[in-house]
Amino acid sequence: MTQRRIHLRINGMDHEVNVRPDDVLLDVLRENLNFTGTKKGCDGTGECGTCTVLIDGKAVYSCLILALDAVGKEITTIEHLAKDGSLHEIQKAFIECGAVQCGFCTPGMILTAKALLDEHPKATEREIKEAIRGNLCRCTGYVKIVKAIQRARGNYRS
């Protein structure tokens, strides 16, 4: 299959990468650009949410997006949330509330929470649960994750 050179804007920086027409964004992020904070869980079926990134501020499963379709959009991965050595409020809240156990779902959960709180800084418990319903966690039972997002909304900065 023929490769094509594309430009992707990831975490505020431009990247050039060669992709095939059927390459999904998840694989390009992890394998070509070394953004390994984006996890690969369900192998491209869109069932787990571990590969969640933000595209133009919206939470999306990167396993379901062709890399070619991300050209011209702003992509944000988990690596971009901490600034100047300080964790983002959502990251801090996840640690403080014990919402991180094995950590596999954590990047997707945090980015999903960020998309929610960017749009609804005072999201209700119901809105939080609705937002994270597509992100599977096998460790926490979600209670600590919901509490962490509730805590983050109190100190929220986008």
Q: Regions with pLDDT < 50 over 5+ consecutive residues? A: none
Largest sheet report = 5 strands, mixed
Determine the CATH topology of the largest domain. Answer: Ubiquitin-like (UB roll)
- The CATH class of the largest domain, by name, is Alpha Beta
Task: Give the tally of β-strands.
Answer: 5
| Percent in helix | 25-40%
Shape descriptor reads globular
> What is the number of domains?
2
Alpha-beta classification: alpha+beta
Q: What gyration radius follows from the Cα positions, in whole Å?
A: 15 Å
User: What is the second-level CATH architecture of the largest domain?
Assistant: Roll
Distance between the termini: 40 Å
Query: Which percent range describes the beta-strand content?
Result: 15-25%
Find the CATH superfamily of the largest domain.
Beta-grasp domain
List the total number of helices: 5
Detailed description of the structure:
By secondary structure, the protein is an alpha+beta fold. The chain has two domains: 4-80, Ubiquitin-like (UB roll) (Roll), CATH 3.10.20.30; 89-154, DNA polymerase, domain 1. The protein contains five helices and five strands, in the order E-E-H-E-E-E-H-H-H-H. It has helices at residues 25-32, 89-96, 106-119, 125-132, 143-154; strands at residues 4-10, 13-19, 52-55, 58-61, 74-76. A five-stranded mixed β-sheet has the order 2-1-5-3-4, sandwiched between helices. A hairpin with a 2-residue loop joins strand 3 and strand 4 (58-61). Helix 3 (106-119) crosses helix 4. The longest helix has 14 residues, at 106-119. The chain is globular, with a radius of gyration of 15 Å. The model has no long low-confidence stretch (mean pLDDT 95).
